[in-house]
Amino acid sequence: MRAALVRVEFSGPAASEDLEELRLLALSAGVEPIVSFTARRGSPDPALFVGSGKAQEIRQAVEAEGLEVVIFDHALSPAQQRNLERVLQVSVVDRTSLILDIFAQRAKSHEGKIQVELAQLSHLSTRLVRGWTHLERQKGGIGLRGPGETQLETDRRLIGDRVKMLRVKLEKLERQRATQRRARHRAGTFSVSLVGYTNAGKSTLFNALTHATAYAADQLFATLDTTSRRVYLEGVGSVVLSDTVGFIRELPHQLVEAFKATLEETIQADLLLHVVDAASSARFEQIEQVNAVLAEIGAEHIPQILVWNKIDATGLEPAIEHDECGTIRRVALSARTGSGLDLLRGALVTVAQGPALAPQQGAPWQIDPTRIGVAT
Q: Which pLDDT band holds residue 362 (cuts at 50, 70, 90)?
């Protein structure tokens, strides 16, 4: 499927890394980006988001290149999406729908599929006016419609019933996870969760530390399902290491809500390893985005160590950084080559043996990325 990409800047210069991220998202969804459009506006156009002039420019490219879809790097209102489709005469997809589609393609486990479907239905419920849903056709249609109901009302009722059923299933799975966590807590097992921006290398690091074979690829959202393994550390014993879904700028709220059961592993961890792509020019912005999502799910109080990954692409040497109090703050390594993994294991031993990263005076530990010098 051939596509045009559109990004609008409302303040400051156009950010090339944001457009590159949209291109990677499109590729992850199986779409081939052909042309890109950027624009600057003071505020979104209420009807077409980009304004009529830019919309006509995009339509000309759609016709000239034979494009099948236009992808916006923004959340569009249902009305804006309908208006754009009338003008452009092709399907229009916003950032939220694109990310939801990628998650739907990547979900493998039963729990992951339930979480993604719940997020999709939450998003769809605001856009039912766009047409007939697939749900009634799956259910058989005849005999389901209440007296005097319109198709829109029927769709809403069917979605509501499906959402209730999915939430019941997720609650059951959440109780199972809670039981497992209580068992680990009673055994005094130290737990560590890998968090970070998507494609920062979390799964590669997870496999390197645990000798597991979790799926790892150079693509956005390669991991959706939380995987936990025990890791033996000399002087500590077994600790539980969990690989979690990656975060991204403007992660759809529906996904955060739907994946709360999975993200409970993050909330309940004793330590977070915040994996950062040291080779990314947007690394500091990505750190801020991850910390924002952690705050949204209630995990901002959990101590964390920054893992500066992919140093093989930056020319940095493996290193471990302490603050003025001697507390471990950052470990620079390459999960792909294994360089610096021994430093990270040593850091985990140090933290597991004592409250080296305990938040002081009840305040959450915060990283100041401006203090970290990184070669580019």
A: very low
- CA gap 278, 320 in Å, rounded: 14
Identify the helix (H) or strand (E) that includes residue 8.
Answer: strand 2-9
110 Cβ partners below 8 Å, 6+ apart? none
Q: Side by side, which strands form the sheet with 227-233?
A: 227-233, 237-243, 190-196, 271-277, 304-309, 328-332, 319-322
pLDDT tens per residue, range 74-107: 889 888 998 999 999 999 999 988 888 888 887 7
Nearest to 228 by CA among 212, 215, 216: 212
Burial of 2 per CB tally in 10 Å (0-12, 13-18, 19+): middle
Asked if 271 contacts 327 with a C-beta cutoff of 8 angstroms, the reply is no
User: Distance between CA 16 and CA 62 in Å, rounded?
Assistant: 22
Which distant-in-sequence residues (6+ apart) come within 8 Å of 183 by Cβ?
none
Determine the pLDDT at residue 130.
46
Q: How many other CB atoms are found less than 10 A from the CB of residue 219?
A: 14
pLDDT in tens, 280-307: 988 999 999 899 888 888 888 899 999 9
DSSP state of 235: T
Distance of CA 194 to the CA centre of its chain: 13
Question: Which 3 state secondary structure label does DSSP give 266?
Answer: helix
Q: How far from the centroid of its chain's Cα atoms is residue 200's Cα?
A: 11
Taking the C-alpha atoms of residue 53 and residue 243, their distance in angstroms, rounded to an integer, is: 46
